[in-house]
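Figure 3 (text version): structure tokens given as input.
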């Protein structure tokens, strides 16, 4: 059995690396080419890292407290990651899509 994690925030950034051997051969390079599979983050994006850091920074600075509501203007994956991590940490998240 693999490792059991205490919550999804522990999984952020623990994404696998895959060697792209066919690309190495086709391009005739003498280096390993690796791809980091960020889609394996809990909410499916590299932006999960950004969301986790935003929450950690806000907690450390005393901005984010129990019962806080997180409001984020975004139309992308940062909002998805922030909503997921806010939910598992007991915060309410409101994601606002800007006009521009």
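Below: residues designed for each position.
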């Amino acid at each position: 059995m693999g490792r059991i994690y205490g919550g999804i925030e522990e999984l952020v950034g623990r994404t696998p690396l895959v060697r792209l051997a066919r690309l190495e051969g086709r391009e005739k390079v003498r280096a390993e080419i690796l791809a980091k599979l960020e889609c394996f983050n809990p909410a499916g994006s590299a932006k999960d890292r950004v969301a986790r850091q935003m929450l950690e920074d806000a907690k450390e600075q005393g901005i984010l407290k129990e019962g806080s509501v997180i409001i984020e203007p975004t139309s992308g994956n940062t909002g998805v990651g922030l909503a997921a991590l806010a939910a598992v940490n007991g915060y309410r998240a409101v994601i606002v899509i800007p006009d521009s």
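Residues 8-96 form a domain with the Rossmann fold fold (CATH 3.40.50.1100).
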